[in-house]
């Protein structure tokens, strides 16, 4: 809402010297409006700028365009009868004026916007001591050709800056959706008066005539959609009458374009009172105005030229010809005011906010009128607004008000609320006095009645439909008393138990991966068919069953992700593209899986009471499963090359190791086995499990996927479902007994088939070695001719220790032999000689 | 080592005579002083303290002396051996110092050489800043609660007092899950699924109230979605952290105190908040929260010579929204508004990160460029 400061001051007796900023700042504090910007108009303009009167015009010829050399009287004294003394000589290129016209003259020494300095000079071989100004030269807009011709009663010699209001400020307020009344000078002025504790002059506080039956006939068939409809008629309008400069000026500063006198008056009154006005050319109306909902198939050409296919929920203004307007949103073309209109029917009505809002959205047709109706315009302002329009049409357009006054419906105020007068103080934590509470509610416009010693019956004014609950009233008192009155007290929260087990693990996983050299990425959680195809997922892969969005950001990625990999791989590619080759990235986040047999719609439950547990369960049953996953991707070198030697490429091992790091952080045992699973390399894919339950996969990506996505060769990845890694119960680590006895070490090299997993051999050794075994560590893998085709040799270091004695060599060897024996029987291992 | 058990032989007792002892002592000290290297000293050490050293031999002879003479001889030889030992240690130390000065210098390396063989990693600052904020509230006794990102409209809107026709409940502002009939017949607008990508983390508060009842003190950080275009200051996928306290007798003053405490814990001593009236459906009264600029503390206002980049020389930074929980929300969540009241607050995490750490472009936070994330390390 743009508020010209000079206009605002018409209604509020602000103390002298109060700046626009002071008002805007104060209203920001009290909630009357939030300061967005203050615009200084007439910036860069300085006098002398005066009202002049053209005394004589000499037409100059012989130049490229016609030029006038004018004598302009610029002092009041010189404008006396029979006096033409001291006129200024001024050369002017415009032609839209005549002798006797009043004009705006910039005298030598004046500076116009754009640092345009006026000086006495010689031009077109004539003396020119100033300039006759156009609207554009004064920064008043671009609309008018030629110079400004002022009304005949404008005082010659007067300071034109003050007379035209060229020196002004416009405050732009952000208006919150609950405070529709501040979309008007009237509303802002009321707030300013309250904030500064000065009198408020209500522009709607004017006499309005009684309704009668002789006004323009109106029938409201949908009183729920339209509870008040006022119609007035003005005839005999002079179609040539122009909007006065001050009105044009105020409209411009308020962000509206002057159009024609009738339209300008309607807009002016809307800005002033917040009541949208519609004007109809009476000669174009046929029969009574009827307010009703649209019928199927009806069409309306709105005055922006658009053809609107109407919806049965649209509220319409109609006459015998059919629809003539979308009520409260935009009028129709057929009854529009035009250049020759002389008879006007003025509509000031009140329409239901939600109905208007839906029509606006349906037709994508925002308008100044609709903006006000959507935020609960004041039904009580309709009659006054219609009267203001009538008065201005009579005064400025030479019209005659017809006596008939049509008023349909009645103004209703919001329902009265009963609150203890102490209630605002209880909400705030401040001891307001009863006087303070009552005074503030009065200032808002409420009527108060005492009910017993403790309670107040509060009836909000017609413009405050937002005051529905006791807390709404509390807010009014608290904000007007000032939020700075609120003390700062810290409540004592109930004793907490800190983070949950799962929350701690999630943080630990992130820290562990970052400590291992991974960089966290937070990718957008959307994907599309192409992403899943690029991963080479089979047709029946569950990751292809996604949650689609009705309005995705991009058609390429219309669904919620079922895997973290596309987002991570895109980030990997972006980094590579920007010149970072060695990458290890991770992400923790949700994936989304539609539930089998879920209800297609999550029901909209009641808000009047707590829904039952069954009702609440029905919501969750409709929602997709949203487990948390963690994934890593790697490419380039895992350890960089340097002066110490070559680097080590990242590979499948690192991806699987990342899973081990996570398992460690979760304190669970990770079971790794060979697998084939898209998008991994079929020979380099690990199945990750915990307690036998699949949690994810890791390894090198399939070369086709790498090629398809343009990834660096041998890009590796791991993805697992973190929620499945987090034990239901926190696992307490049992402290081990530490033996101080000496260790006995035995190395064994076992030859097995190449296909036998190391894990199986190691597990057999571990089991076979018995209780004395402290650790097993693989320290070498050998393949080659010496052990034969299709075989591999695994070398292990076994460490034995007893808790209570030094082991003999025989004991250690015996334990080793039984370990080897079990490995032999389980895996076919042969001791390498 | 024990001496061989020899019988008494007066000839050999020569060795314990004072002159002899003094001579052996002087010889040994001279040899020690003459040793020029650690190796030579080692040889000397064997010669003057080994089994065959004169003083060692003399020591063995003490037993051959008459009992009356033993004590004095023992003392004499002991002193001599002690002096030799001291001289050896001293010379050893001298020679080691000399060697250190020479050899260790030869072993010098360039300690400024890089050794970044283990690559560095980092957590995303949006993650760590949420943890830092959560830590502050956990220290105050709050719980941290999570919830789903695809959320039922009822939790996201209805339970929070958004009327059914509220303008944000539209494809223009909110991502909707496409229902079975989206875009046709029963659901021409495509909003009929009753499911949205949550537009704030407030539905978690509703879930918490429904699950736990009052009193509760919780914060919920997490990802949220609105249909903004991605640019330097907007992203359709962003993060929020919200707090909710519902208890007997909570007031706006308590809300203000809580925000002040948070501001101080996060931005430094004495940084306070300012509330300005605003409107949110789920709180009444509602306010926007300004944070006093933690860099200039307002000193840059009206001082064009010392502008402040963090607050744009306005002294205050718009931080988030807050208010007293609308009793209608309490009713929908099964909490008795006659008995309990509460406050709620919420801040954009990206925005907080932008002014706390001077992030210039929102896109940097979502693109996953490691050059952006690495400097933030493990914690913020
Ligand atoms: Zn600052």
From TrEMBL, chain A:
<dbReference type="InterPro" id="IPR005147">
    <property type="entry name" value="tRNA_synthase_B5-dom"/>
</dbReference>
<keyword id="KW-0694">RNA-binding</keyword>
<dbReference type="InterPro" id="IPR045864">
    <property type="entry name" value="aa-tRNA-synth_II/BPL/LPL"/>
</dbReference>
<dbReference type="GO" id="GO:0004826">
    <property type="term" value="F:phenylalanine-tRNA ligase activity"/>
</dbReference>
<keyword id="KW-0030">Aminoacyl-tRNA synthetase</keyword>
<dbReference type="InterPro" id="IPR036690">
    <property type="entry name" value="Fdx_antiC-bd_sf"/>
</dbReference>
<dbReference type="InterPro" id="IPR005121">
    <property type="entry name" value="Fdx_antiC-bd"/>
</dbReference>
<dbReference type="InterPro" id="IPR002547">
    <property type="entry name" value="tRNA-bd_dom"/>
</dbReference>
<dbReference type="InterPro" id="IPR005146">
    <property type="entry name" value="B3/B4_tRNA-bd"/>
</dbReference>
<protein>
    <recommendedName>
        <fullName>Phenylalanine--tRNA ligase beta subunit</fullName>
        <ecNumber>6.1.1.20</ecNumber>
    </recommendedName>
</protein>
<dbReference type="Pfam" id="PF03483">
    <property type="entry name" value="B3_4"/>
</dbReference>
<feature type="binding site">
    <location>
        <position position="476"/>
    </location>
    <ligand>
        <name>Mg(2+)</name>
    </ligand>
</feature>
<feature type="binding site">
    <location>
        <position position="466"/>
    </location>
    <ligand>
        <name>Mg(2+)</name>
    </ligand>
</feature>
<keyword id="KW-0067">ATP-binding</keyword>
<dbReference type="InterPro" id="IPR004532">
    <property type="entry name" value="Phe-tRNA-ligase_IIc_bsu_bact"/>
</dbReference>
<keyword id="KW-0460">Magnesium</keyword>
<dbReference type="InterPro" id="IPR041616">
    <property type="entry name" value="PheRS_beta_core"/>
</dbReference>
<keyword id="KW-0820">tRNA-binding</keyword>
<comment type="subunit">
    <text>Tetramer of two alpha and two beta subunits.</text>
</comment>
<dbReference type="InterPro" id="IPR012340">
    <property type="entry name" value="NA-bd_OB-fold"/>
</dbReference>
<keyword id="KW-0963">Cytoplasm</keyword>
<keyword id="KW-0436">Ligase</keyword>
From TrEMBL, chain B:
<keyword id="KW-0963">Cytoplasm</keyword>
<comment type="similarity">
    <text>Belongs to the class-II aminoacyl-tRNA synthetase family. Phe-tRNA synthetase alpha subunit type 1 subfamily.</text>
</comment>
<dbReference type="InterPro" id="IPR022911">
    <property type="entry name" value="Phe_tRNA_ligase_alpha1_bac"/>
</dbReference>
<comment type="subunit">
    <text>Tetramer of two alpha and two beta subunits.</text>
</comment>
<dbReference type="InterPro" id="IPR002319">
    <property type="entry name" value="Phenylalanyl-tRNA_Synthase"/>
</dbReference>
<keyword id="KW-0460">Magnesium</keyword>
<dbReference type="InterPro" id="IPR004529">
    <property type="entry name" value="Phe-tRNA-synth_IIc_asu"/>
</dbReference>
<dbReference type="Pfam" id="PF02912">
    <property type="entry name" value="Phe_tRNA-synt_N"/>
</dbReference>
<dbReference type="InterPro" id="IPR004188">
    <property type="entry name" value="Phe-tRNA_ligase_II_N"/>
</dbReference>
<keyword id="KW-0547">Nucleotide-binding</keyword>
<dbReference type="GO" id="GO:0004826">
    <property type="term" value="F:phenylalanine-tRNA ligase activity"/>
</dbReference>
<feature type="domain" description="Aminoacyl-transfer RNA synthetases class-II family profile">
    <location>
        <begin position="127"/>
        <end position="375"/>
    </location>
</feature>
<keyword id="KW-0067">ATP-binding</keyword>
<protein>
    <recommendedName>
        <fullName>Phenylalanine--tRNA ligase alpha subunit</fullName>
        <ecNumber>6.1.1.20</ecNumber>
    </recommendedName>
</protein>
<dbReference type="InterPro" id="IPR045864">
    <property type="entry name" value="aa-tRNA-synth_II/BPL/LPL"/>
</dbReference>
<keyword id="KW-0648">Protein biosynthesis</keyword>
<feature type="binding site">
    <location>
        <position position="284"/>
    </location>
    <ligand>
        <name>Mg(2+)</name>
    </ligand>
</feature>
<dbReference type="Pfam" id="PF01409">
    <property type="entry name" value="tRNA-synt_2d"/>
</dbReference>
<dbReference type="InterPro" id="IPR010978">
    <property type="entry name" value="tRNA-bd_arm"/>
</dbReference>
<keyword id="KW-0479">Metal-binding</keyword>
<keyword id="KW-0436">Ligase</keyword>
<dbReference type="InterPro" id="IPR006195">
    <property type="entry name" value="aa-tRNA-synth_II"/>
</dbReference>
């Amino acid at each position: 809402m743009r508020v010209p400061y000079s206009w605002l001051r018409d209604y509020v007796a602000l103390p002298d010297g109060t700046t626009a900023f002071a008002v805007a700042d104060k209203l920001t504090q009290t909630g009357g409006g939030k300061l967005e910007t203050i615009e200084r108009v007439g910036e860069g303009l300085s006098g002398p700028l005066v009202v002049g009167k053209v005394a004589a015009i000499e037409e100059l010829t012989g130049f490229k365009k016609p030029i006038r050399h004018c004598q302009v009287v610029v002092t009041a004294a010189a404008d006396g009868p029979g006096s033409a003394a001291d006129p200024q000589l001024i050369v002017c290129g415009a032609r839209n004026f005549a002798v006797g016209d009043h004009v705006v003259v910039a005298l030598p020494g004046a500076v116009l916007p754009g640092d345009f300095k006026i000086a006495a000079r010689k031009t077109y071989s004539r003396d020119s001591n100033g300039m006759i100004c156009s609207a554009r030269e004064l920064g008043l807009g671009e609309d008018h050709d030629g110079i400004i011709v002022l009304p005949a009663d404008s005082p010659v010699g007067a300071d034109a800056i003050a007379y035209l209001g060229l020196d002004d400020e416009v405050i732009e307020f952000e208006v919150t959706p609950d405070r529709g009344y501040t979309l008007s000078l009237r509303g802002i002025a009321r707030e300013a008066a309250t904030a500064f504790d000065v009198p408020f002059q209500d522009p709607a506080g004017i006499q309005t005539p009684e309704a009668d039956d002789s006004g323009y006939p109106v029938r409201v068939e949908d009183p729920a959609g339209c509870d008040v409809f006022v119609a007035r008629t003005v005839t005999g309008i002079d179609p040539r009458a122009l909007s006065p400069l001050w009105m044009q000026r105020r409209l411009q500063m308020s962000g509206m374009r002057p159009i024609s006198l009738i339209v300008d008056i309607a807009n002016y009154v809307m800005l002033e009172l917040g009541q949208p006005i519609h004007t109809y050319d009476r000669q174009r109306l046929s029969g009574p105005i009827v307010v009703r909902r649209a019928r199927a198939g009806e069409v309306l050409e709105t005055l922006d030229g658009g053809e609107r296919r109407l919806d049965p929920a649209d509220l319409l203004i109609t006459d015998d010809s059919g629809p003539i307007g979308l009520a409260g949103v935009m009028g129709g073309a057929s009854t529009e005011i035009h250049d020759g209109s002389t008879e006007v029917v003025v509509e000031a009505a009140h329409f239901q906010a939600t109905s208007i809002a839906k029509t606006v959205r349906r037709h994508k047709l925002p308008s100044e009128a609709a903006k006000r109706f959507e935020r609960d315009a004041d039904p009580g302002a309709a009659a006054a607004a219609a009267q203001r329009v009538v008065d201005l049409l009579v005064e400025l357009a030479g019209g005659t008000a017809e006596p008939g006054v049509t008023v349909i419906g009645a103004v209703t105020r919001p329902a009265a609320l009963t609150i203890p007068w102490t209630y605002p103080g209880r909400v705030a934590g401040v001891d307001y006095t009863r006087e303070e509470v009552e005074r503030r509610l009065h200032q808002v416009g409420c009527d108060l009645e005492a009910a017993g010693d403790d309670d107040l019956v509060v009836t909000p004014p017609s413009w405050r439909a937002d005051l529905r609950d006791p807390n709404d009233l509390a807010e009014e008192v608290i904000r007007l008393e000032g939020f700075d009155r609120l003390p700062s007290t810290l409540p004592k929260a109930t004793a907490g138990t800190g983070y949950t087990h799962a929350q701690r693990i999630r943080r630990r996983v992130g820290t562990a991966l970052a400590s291992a050299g991974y960089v966290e990425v937070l990718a957008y959680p959307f994907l599309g068919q192409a992403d899943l195809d690029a991963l080479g997922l089979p047709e029946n892969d569950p990751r292809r069953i996604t949650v689609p969005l009705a309005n995705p950001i991009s058609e390429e990625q219309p669904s919620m992700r079922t895997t973290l990999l596309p987002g991570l791989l895109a980030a990997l590619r972006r980094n590579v593209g920007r010149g970072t080759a060695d990458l290890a990235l991770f992400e923790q986040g949700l994936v989304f899986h539609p539930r089998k047999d879920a209800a297609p719609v999550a029901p909209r439950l009641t808000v009047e009471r707590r829904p039952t547990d069954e009702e609440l369960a029905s919501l969750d049953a409709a929602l997709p499963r949203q487990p948390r996953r963690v994934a890593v991707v790697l490419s380039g070198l895992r350890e960089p090359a340097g002066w110490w030697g070559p680097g080590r490429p990242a590979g499948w091992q690192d991806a699987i190791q990342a899973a081990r790091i996570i398992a460690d952080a979760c304190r669970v045992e990770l079971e790794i086995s060979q697998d084939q699973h898209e998008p991994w390399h079929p020979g380099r894919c690990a199945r990750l499990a915990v307690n036998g339950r699949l949690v994810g996969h890791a390894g090198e990506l399939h070369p086709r996927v790498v090629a398809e996505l343009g990834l660096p060769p041998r890009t590796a990845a791991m993805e697992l479902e973190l929620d499945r890694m987090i034990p239901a119960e926190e696992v307490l680590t049992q402290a081990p007994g530490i033996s101080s006895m000496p260790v006995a070490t035995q190395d064994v090299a076992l030859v097995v088939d190449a296909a036998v997993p190391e894990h199986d051999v190691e597990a057999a050794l571990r089991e076979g070695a018995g209780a004395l075994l402290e650790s097993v560590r693989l320290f070498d893998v050998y393949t080659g001719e010496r052990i034969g085709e299709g075989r591999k040799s695994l070398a292990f270091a076994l460490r034995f220790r007893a808790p209570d004695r030094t082991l003999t060599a025989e004991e250690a060897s015996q334990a080793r032999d039984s370990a080897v024996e079990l490995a032999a029987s389980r895996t076919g291992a042969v001791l390498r000689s | 080592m024990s001496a061989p058990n020899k019988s008494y032989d007066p000839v050999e007792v020569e060795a314990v005579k004072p002159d002899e002892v003094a001579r052996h002592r002087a010889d040994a000290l001279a040899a020690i002083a003459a040793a020029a290297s650690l190796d030579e000293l080692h040889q000397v050490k064997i010669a003057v303290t080994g089994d065959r050293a004169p003083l060692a031999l003399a020591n063995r002879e003490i037993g051959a002396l008459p009992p009356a003479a033993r004590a004095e001889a023992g003392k004499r030889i002991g002193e001599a051996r002690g002096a030799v030992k001291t001289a050896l240690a001293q010379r050893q130390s001298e020679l080691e110092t000399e060697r250190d000065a020479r050899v260790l210098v030869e072993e010098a390396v360039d300690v400024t050489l890089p050794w970044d063989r283990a690559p560095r990693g980092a957590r995303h600052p949006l993650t760590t800043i949420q943890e830092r904020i959560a830590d502050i509230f956990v220290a105050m006794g709050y719980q941290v609660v999570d919830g789903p990102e695809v959320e039922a409209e009822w939790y996201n809107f209805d339970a929070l007092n958004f009327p059914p026709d509220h303008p944000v409940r539209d494809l223009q502002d909110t991502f909707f899950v496409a229902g079975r009939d989206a875009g046709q017949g029963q659901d021409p607008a495509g909003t009929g699924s009753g499911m949205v990508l949550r537009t704030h983390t407030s539905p978690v508060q509703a879930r918490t109230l429904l699950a736990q009842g009052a009193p509760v003190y919780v914060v919920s950080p997490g990802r949220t979605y609105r249909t903004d275009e991605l640019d330097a200051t907007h992203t359709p996928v962003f993060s929020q952290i919200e707090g909710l306290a519902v208890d007997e007798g909570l007031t706006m003053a308590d809300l203000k105190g809580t925000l002040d405490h948070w501001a101080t814990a996060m931005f430094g001593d004495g940084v306070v908040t300012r509330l300005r009236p605003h409107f949110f459906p789920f709180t009444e009264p509602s306010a926007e929260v300004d944070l006093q600029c933690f860099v200039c503390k307002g000193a840059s206002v009206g001082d064009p010579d010392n502008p402040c980049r963090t607050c744009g020389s306005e002294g205050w930074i718009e931080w988030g929204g807050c208010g007293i929980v609308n009793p209608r929300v309490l009713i929908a969540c099964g909490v008795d508004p006659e008995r309990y009241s509460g406050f709620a607050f919420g801040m954009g995490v990206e925005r907080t990160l932008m002014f706390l750490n001077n992030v210039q472009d929102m896109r940097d936070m979502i693109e996953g460029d490691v050059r952006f994330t690495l400097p933030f390390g493990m914690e913020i």
